[in-house]
Design brief:
Blueprint: H1 6-30, H2 35-40, H3 42-52, H4 76-85, H5 91-96
């Protein structure tokens, strides 16, 4: 049985707190969201993106990457917040382009066509 690196656990817990704060700020700024669902996936998303998945923020089309399909697509703001945290997009850029006419790159549901790190476009029910 492997031992648990408690220092790393604390780092990930701290990252969850930061992501939650950034998520609340993001949802406030865009004026919409599904906070219950979005907050409910923070721990899983942080564990995957910061610890377990092979993911390169500088090359999100990397062939060897792991792929995450978020069928709970109305929680996309959590992923967008992580993408901001790892430096793919700035929060200001995402707010400016959130469901705006002709420039919508980010929306309430994941859309691969407009947001590169999203692997699969999904709708309200998957």
């Amino acid at each position: 049985m492997s031992s648990v690196d408690m220092k790393r656990v604390i780092e990930l817990e701290d990252k969850c707190v930061k992501i939650r704060k950034d998520l609340l700020n993001f949802v406030h700024r865009i004026g919409m969201g599904h906070l219950g669902g979005e907050l409910s996936i923070v721990e899983v998303a942080v564990a995957l993106y910061y610890e377990y998945m092979k993911f390169d923020p500088k090359n999100h089309d990397w062939e060897e990457r792991d792929r995450l399909v978020l069928s709970k697509a109305h929680c996309s703001e959590t992923l967008y917040t992580i993408y901001s945290d790892v430096g793919i997009y700035t929060m200001d850029y995402m707010v400016e382009h959130f469901e705006s006419l002709n420039t919508a790159k980010f929306g309430q549901h994941c859309n691969r066509k407009y947001c590169g790190p999203i692997e699969v476009s999904t709708g309200s029910l998957g």
